[in-house]
Amino acid sequence: MDQLGNIGTEVARSVRARRSGNDARAWNALVRALELFDLTIADGRWRGPKRREICRAREVVCDFMAGDNEYQSSAESLDRYFLAFAMAARNRSSSSS
């Protein structure tokens, strides 16, 4: 949950920077998001359908940020997707405190 929430934060930073016309900042945030995706995918705890979902999410983010947006994604749809993980991680950490 934490890992995907952190990826979502970088994706959101990239989207905001792109909207404000700061291409360098948008690119750097996208690169950080992709690095986090790759580290998460390489993590042995993610297997089977979970790993496939993470790989698909990476593909969708790349398509939206740097591709032709064949998946018809929006900043809002990506935000909703990643927000669910951030909220689950937050709820998990607050319940264990």
Based on the model shown, name its key terms.
97 residues; mainly alpha
Any chance you could write out the topology, listing elements then pairs?
Layout: H1 2-19, H2 23-42, H3 48-66, H4 75-95
What percentage of the residues does DSSP assign to strands (E)? under 5%
The residue ranges in which pLDDT falls below 50 over 5 or more consecutive positions are none
Determine Rg (CA atoms, Å): 14 Å
User: How many β-strand runs?
Assistant: 0
How would you classify the quaternary structure?
A: single chain
Question: What's the pLDDT, averaged over the residues?
Answer: 94
- In whole angstroms, the N-to-C terminal distance is 17 Å
Helices and strands, in order, run as: HHHH
The profile of the biggest β sheet is: none
Number of helices: 4
Helical fraction: over 70%
Global geometry = globular
Q: What class, by secondary structure content? A: mainly alpha
